[in-house]
Design a protein that fits this description.
- The structure is a single chain.
- This protein has one domain: 3-Layer(aba) Sandwich (Rossmann fold), CATH 3.40.50.2300.
- Helix content is 43%, strand content 22%.
- It has helices spanning 13-25, 36-45, 62-71, 87-93, 107-119, and strands spanning 4-9, 28-33, 50-54, 79-84, 99-102.
- It has a 5-stranded parallel sheet, with helices on both faces.
- Strand 1, helix 1 and strand 2 (28-33) form a beta-alpha-beta unit.
- Helix 1 (13-25) packs across helix 5 (107-119).
- The two termini are 18 Å apart.
């Protein structure tokens, strides 16, 4: 099976590192973008299998990134997991995201989710 790619878009370094390590433990190759601009640069060349997306980002908002991921055909099979501490944002994006995760999210929760997503067919 080819390597599945995950992009963690999170401006908090510690959270981004925990998510990336958990995704790796779940069988993904993981990259980190700590701003919306970094995410756009990565997404210009790559269509990851999963994007773990924080909503409060510097430069380009998570909501703008989510819209782009949902409107460009090359991301049709990319699963978007919104990770937010704000339940109001969770409600606002629940129909655009494949899954909404409310922070705090533990390493083991993200790892176990990655394992389930790795074995589940893409949409």
């Amino acid at each position: 099976m080819s390597d599945l790619l995950a992009l963690v878009v999170e401006d908090d370094y510690d959270i981004a590192t925990i998510f990336a390590q958990a995704l790796k433990a779940g069988g993904f190759k993981a990259q980190i973008a700590q701003s919306g601009e970094q995410a756009l640069a990565y997404l210009a060349d790559t269509a990851p299998d999963i994007v773990v997306l924080d909503m409060h980002l510097p430069e380009v908002s998570g909501l703008d990134l989510l819209r782009r991921l949902r409107t460009e055909a090359r991301f049709a099979h990319t699963r978007v997991l919104v990770a937010t501490a704000d339940p109001r944002i969770a409600d606002a994006v629940e129909h655009s995201a494949d899954l909404v995760l409310i922070k705090p999210i533990t390493f083991s929760q993200m790892r176990d989710l990655a394992k389930r997503l790795r074995s589940a067919p893409a949409r």
